[in-house]
Automatic annotation (TrEMBL):
Record has Cytoplasm as a keyword: no
Organism: Zea mays (Maize)
Listed GO biological process terms: amino acid metabolic process; ethylene biosynthetic process
MF-aspect GO terms: 1-aminocyclopropane-1-carboxylate synthase activity; pyridoxal phosphate binding; transaminase activity
Keyword field: Ethylene biosynthesis, Lyase, Pyridoxal phosphate, S-adenosyl-L-methionine
Family per record: Belongs to the class-I pyridoxal-phosphate-dependent aminotransferase family.
Reaction catalyzed: S-adenosyl-L-methionine = 1-aminocyclopropane-1-carboxylate + S-methyl-5'-thioadenosine + H(+)
Protein name (Swiss-Prot/TrEMBL): 1-aminocyclopropane-1-carboxylate synthase
Necessary cofactors: pyridoxal 5'-phosphate
Length: 485
């Protein structure tokens, strides 16, 4: 066994600990999917993967581009003349043409409202590597970042595992659509200080995963001012910047610090970006730290030796990203397809009265199943989630795994599948909800008349611990309600 608490622990404390976060329910759902993956032709009863924020909707456009541009690959007759130059390249500054293309593209995604300096673009292994690098540069073990909830679960790994940073929640609520307020931020900041924790940064994701919403200009300006006033870093994960498909438009922190907060201390502002979501290229492992702080750029660049992007990938992307006409077409078409998918999914849920938080970005919806909980607890949420994963066979992600303080919210990814699979998933959800509504109605009706419900015994113990309104009780074949009907 690798871990252990004995005095002769073989590995480092970090390696032996569970800081990777693999034990979270977020990953449990993945395991269920791995054991019985849905396939339209070969396994129609399998688990549908809706826990993976992956963009498969526009890959055909990239495939098409690469076929029309064989010179972008060093492994084709048209591109082989570059083979030696590229295969021999290993400078951690990255190919100049790659950084230039990346900076130009980042500006294009932000509708040309802001320009990026190629000399501030630092390569990392995905946005995952970018966060790890930033945490290494910005904070010491035990320092904290404040993070609005709900937030991307793997931040617990990316920011904390190696660097020992703590993430402290800034509690956001459904009452204002989980909008971050200055009051909540100040309350989290003061709370940390009272506990003697040094706050080194505020970490936001804009557009948000899991909410699928964009942050407005005023909130971003408030954050930039707060960072300047309190000398804390503002780290903005903008990985979904190019996946905004409806109004309001995306506003980048880059734009806000230029236009709205003239006195902003730019040394505190850092952006993490990646091509994993907007292009659906997580396998390329292309992440970026874009920092306005020269020292962070210098240190992150040295760090990038640990997570360099292959020069072959840089070469290919340099060509593709600098094709401005293709990029414009790609971004417009991708947004159109994301909108169509989102609208269809949300409308399908509405048919059975299930609402989602109004979203305009991302590859998922934040689904409100609060009305289906046995009670307003995280246990009840996980109970419902287990039914959805194991009986309804949809791997959605429970709000608790995103540190959401209000039970009953679920993130459902819908851009990682074809239309037909999405319809199967929708059908399953609708059938499940209707079943629940039907039972709930029957229960209400039964509750109005005097009756004695006798519950059978299972394994010597009474099964009455299963609450009657529990979806577990609804669907489990051993359920007293199933026996009663
Ligand atoms: C908000 C956010 N940041 C970072 C990542 C990690 O992305 P990458 O594949 O570039 O490491 C994800 C992936 O789901 C994400 O949603």
């Amino acid at each position: 066994m690798a871990g252990g608490s004995s005095a002769e622990q073989l590995l480092s404390r970090i390696a032996s600990g569970d800081g990777h976060g693999e034990n979270s329910s977020y990953f449990d759902g993945w395991k269920a999917y791995d054991m019985d993956p849905f396939d339209l032709r070969h396994n129609r009863d399998g688990v549908i993967q809706m826990g993976l924020a992956e963009n498969q909707l526009s890959l055909d456009l990239i495939e098409q581009w690469s076929m029309e541009h064989p010179e972008a690959s060093i492994c084709t007759a048209q591109g082989a003349s570059q083979f030696r130059r590229i295969a021999n390249f290993q400078d951690y500054h990255g190919l100049p043409e790659f950084r230039e293309a990346m900076a130009k593209f980042m500006g294009q995604v932000r509708a040309g409202k802001v320009t990026f300096d190629p000399d501030r673009v630092v390569m990392c292994g995905g946005a995952t590597g970018a966060q790890d690098t930033l945490a290494f540069c910005l904070a010491d073990p035990g320092d904290a970042y404040l993070v609005p909830t709900p937030y991307y679960p793997a931040f617990d790994r990316d920011c904390c595992w190696r660097s020992g940073v703590k993430l402290l929640p800034i509690e956001c609520h459904s009452s204002n659509n989980f909008t971050l307020t200055r009051e909540a931020l100040v309350s989290a900041y003061d709370g940390a200080r009272r506990q003697g924790v040094r706050v080194k940064g505020v970490l936001i994701t804009n557009p948000s995963n899991p909410l699928g919403t964009t942050m407005d200009r005023a909130t971003l300006a408030m954050l930039a001012r707060f960072a300047t006033e309190h000398r804390v870093h503002l780290i903005c994960d903008e990985i979904y910047a190019g996946s905004v498909f409806a109004k309001p438009d995306f506003v980048s922190i880059a734009e806000v610090i230029e236009r709205d907060v003239p006195g902003c201390n730019r040394d505190l502002i850092h952006i993490a970006y990646s091509l994993s979501k907007d292009f659906g290229l997580p396998g390329f492992r292309v992440g970026i730290v874009y920092s306005y702080n020269d020292d962070v750029v210098a240190c992150a660049r040295k760090m990038s030796s640990f997570g360099l992007v292959s020069s072959q990938t840089q070469h290919f992307l340099a060509k593709m990203l600098s094709d401005a006409e293709f990029m414009a077409r790609f971004l417009a078409e991708s947004a159109r397809r994301l909108a169509a998918r989102h609208d269809r999914f949300v409308a399908g849920l509405r048919e059975v009265g299930i609402a989602c938080l109004p979203g305009n970005a991302g590859l998922f919806s934040w689904m409100d199943l609060r009305g289906m909980l046995r009670d307003k607890t995280h246990d009840a949420e996980l109970e419902l989630w287990r039914v959805i994963v194991h009986k309804v066979k949809l791997n959605v992600s429970p709000g608790t795994s995103f540190h959401c303080n209000e039970p009953g919210w679920f993130r459902v990814c819908h851009a990682n599948m074809d239309d037909e699979t999405m319809e199967v998933a929708l059908d399953r959800i609708r059938r499940f909800v209707r079943q629940h509504q039907h039972k709930a109605k029957a229960e209400r009706w039964a509750a109005t008349r005097p009756m004695r419900l006798s519950l059978p015994r299972r394994g010597g113990a009474t099964a009455s611990h299963l609450p009657i309104s529990s979806p577990m009780a609804l669907l489990s074949p051993q359920s007293p309600m199933v026996h009663a009907s």
